[in-house]
Amino acid sequence: METVLPDGCGNAPRVSIVADVVSAWTARDDGALSAMLAESAVWRVVGAGQSPEAGAADALAALLGADALVRRIEFDDIITHGRLASCTGRIVAADAAGNERAIEFSHHLRFAGAAKTAPVAAVRTFLGGGSTR
User: What is the pLDDT of residue 91?
Assistant: First the structure.
């Protein structure tokens, strides 16, 4: 899976952490996610017909489809400030026939503390319906 980061965002220490969290979520890598999330972390998904109580991985799977292969994550921006961070972009996936579909996202993260090593305490994800490419 390719990850496309915005230009000029390499100087904030949490930019790569935010990209890693979103990449692990997209790849459905529970091991990597659990290493970055606080034990009591809450992740809510809103939009595109999703219930806020739905699991974050389940919400993405429902939008992409069971046979979808994620090809890349395209970040438009990643913004961090203190304990807060946000990012926007899209997930581009292909079905078994190779037809690409893009799902728009906006993630808003709150870290458990100000230290660079603090885990993510909360995420709110907004998903937009996919468009065929």
Answer: 94
For the stretch 39-86, pLDDT in tens is 999 888 887 555 555 566 667 777 777 778 999 999 999 999 999 999
Domains and CATH numbers, the chain: 2-132 (3.10.450.50)
What are the residues facing 75 on neighbouring strands? 89
pLDDT, tens digit, 9 for 90 and up, residues 104-120 = 999 999 999 988 889 99
Question: What are the pLDDT digits (tens) for 7-44?
Answer: 876 677 899 999 999 999 999 888 999 999 999 998 88
26-55: buried (b, 16+ CB within 10 Å) or exposed (e) per residue? beeeeeebeebbbeebebbbebbebeeebe
Give the helix/strand (H/E) hosting 87. Answer: strand 84-94
CB 92 within 8 A of CB 70: yes
- 123's enclosing H/E stretch is strand 120-132
CA distance 32 to 15: 16
H-run or E-run covering 18 = helix 15-26
